Amino acid sequence: MILVGPSLGAAVAIDFAVNHPEAVQNLVLIDASVYAEGTGNLANLPRIVAYAGVYLLKSLPLRFYVNVLAFNGISLSTSIDWTNVGRLHCLFPWWEDATVNFMISGGYNVSDQIDQVKQKTLIIWGEDDKIISNKLAVRLHCELPDAIIHQIPDCGHLPHVERPSSLKVFLIIEVNGGRWKKHHH
């Protein structure tokens, strides 16, 4: 399979690819959040404080602000729409418990697994990402044994939402004629 991991999903994808290499042929990492060393001091919060923080995380004002950071130059009406879409997962009845448990568990820390990735990897990054620095894109490209990187201009943290046609072009190039074609079974 080709495993795609956007943002924190990239950490999950790396962990899965390293621990189950037979299941993953290629990786696509999109604005990868892979250098945060878990949840840090959040793991030590009392549960009541963690729940208060999680409640704030799903609030409309904070979600709207995150959308302003995540997307590059979108209209107010689009930002409101994407804020509503972007908080849908927060409305599941289990979301608060799952998020608190994730925080208290220490979260994901895959930085020591990056150099163990054996799969050919495509890194996609929005040039104007205000959430994760482009410097980390370059670092990831250098640390992955077999990776290429494409930066998408005029794009923020979520290229698959903001510029899906650009992302599609890079995927088609890799799958149909790029480095991956030679190794398909």
Give an overview of the whole structure.
- This protein has 185 residues and is of the alpha/beta class.
- It folds into two domains: 112 residues, Rossmann fold, CATH 3.40.50; 65 residues, no CATH class.
- It is 44% helix and 12% strand.
- Strands 1-2-3-4 form a four-stranded parallel β-sheet, sandwiched between helices.
- The model has no long low-confidence stretch (mean pLDDT 86).
- InterPro entries: AB_hydrolase_1, AB_hydrolase_fold.
- It comes from Acer negundo (Box elder).
**Approximate helicity band:** 40-55%
How many DSSP helices?
Answer: 8
Which sequence of strands runs across the widest sheet? 1-2-3-4
Radius of gyration: 17 Å
Largest sheet: 4 strands, parallel
Mean pLDDT: 86
What is the global morphology? Answer: globular
> What is the fold-level CATH name, i.e. the topology of the largest domain?
Rossmann fold
Give the termini separation. Answer: 11 Å
What is the CATH C-level name of the largest domain?
Alpha Beta
Q: Report the CATH architecture of the largest domain.
A: 3-Layer(aba) Sandwich
Number of separate domains: 2
List SSEs in N-to-C order: EHEHHHHEHEHH
Beta-strand portion reads: 5-15%
